[in-house]
């Protein structure tokens, strides 16, 4: 590759760091609008980043041969590409065929482990590149597929690139030699007449300007078929969840989103999936399976979290209450209110000097940290409350964090209304002003609702430490009055009492009453319309005959009288 190509967005070309890896520009992308990035034309730029192509595979030697043959003919420089095949317990074991990239090697999933999650993570752990590129073993990639992905990674350190996948009518395919020849000649498309994109994916892309308008939901299209991610970003979220054998790519996409990723679909990164996917063939069964496990990991699946008393592994909102220097009563008011709201999938972390609470002899009523002791006593066995010495650096993978000063209590709907505003406008930060504080205080006290992805993105691109400023630039922020959202000082707040089941029962009764009144109103509307119709009939003369008869009868009776 040669030529200057289009300039890299925002910054100078990548340079080598002291650790030997390549430093990537910190492009500042708003939400998921990657439009300002200017990728170079294919074949018209100079790559620097190393890519590790990871292929999870199980009992699929023939399909793997075709996939590796296509990779052997890629336009991306061979010295910057390695291929790792993660054999998920194949019997007989998979082998590297004659036609394969020079840097191809096999690793085995550990004995006793199995499944796509384990295969993907085993391959990732063995990879040495700057970028990890997932490819399924039944995929054939166009000649410039890897190159198309990699040009984006040279522009932004948090890009997750999605290839353009088309599906063939059946799983039959050409031989490995034919694949290699066609891909090398740039004629791979001729091998797959009748291929088509996934209809749902195509619809999402069309509705969102190819994810530029997708906002926080862009991760929905993250798929393991052909997706690439910076290795540092992948490791920052803990890699692939090895407990998942299905839906692991969606779970990973969600966690990457919370880490600040921007998702970029590239139509020039063409690839073909031999035969329909499992989802296309057995959609209802796939959903039945995945929807039993993914709600625990992905709080965004709101329609699957409708149970009013369930506890979930990953909360939708992580509430942080700083108890340092606060009274037991104030901390209790804040924590209890957070747990009793209409948003039920919340978890609370209380910050305080917990390690100082020793188990030695002490005065039960006069110890110096009595208030902290009482807080620990009260919530020590509450599964939704945890304790920490310092405010957590991040609340990921929870998509939102709310920080609340001790002594302030959320109303029943406060959190729900703040979330509604943040979600509808895409805000990265909402600050609900509590009071102006006295002269000894340095600023305005507020309850803060922070979007996890926004602050993660800000940390990736901002060197000055002004994360709030970066969040405002990239996602937007807004100030509101805490009083308008029902946030009150502990002494002014309504007491948290009663059984939530009773609240729901009361709400159900009001709902039934509203439905009854609506039915009654509909009946009255129908009666009103009937009477209006009768009036119209009288007005247009269709009742004149009977009226004349009535008048004539009255006149005869009058004469007779």
UniProtKB/TrEMBL annotation:
GO terms for molecular function: transferase activity. Residues 1-28 are annotated as: Disordered. Keywords: Coiled coil, Transferase. Transmembrane segments: none annotated. Residues 507-541 form a coiled coil. It holds the Pfam family Glycos_transf_2. Residues 52-173 form the Glycosyltransferase 2-like domain. It comes from the Bacteria. This is Glycosyltransferase, GT2 family. It comes from Streptosporangium canum.
